[in-house]
Amino acid sequence: MTLQETIAAVLLAAGCLFYIAGTIGLLRFPDVYSRLHALTKADNLGLLLVASGLAVQSGSLRIGAVLLIVWLLGLLAATVSCHLIARHALHATPPERRP
11-25 pLDDT, tens per residue? Predict the structure, then answer.
């Protein structure tokens, strides 16, 4: 196993661990806001690590640039969807129960 393959495997494994941590946070945290926080932070970092691992494994600068664009689009989509879900949860909650 070469050094490049080892680095790629470590990055991919770390990315999978962050995805698992985000999923556990989604299932175990008590309210919408903490679930969203755990899910978006862990999944964004997990996607970055997985994309980095794939870029290292490919060895191509072009594929690395495409994976960077994929990560940026995923980051943007997660941010917007998290904001919309949190805003809906805030407006759906009665004023006396808001955080």
Answer: 999 999 999 999 998
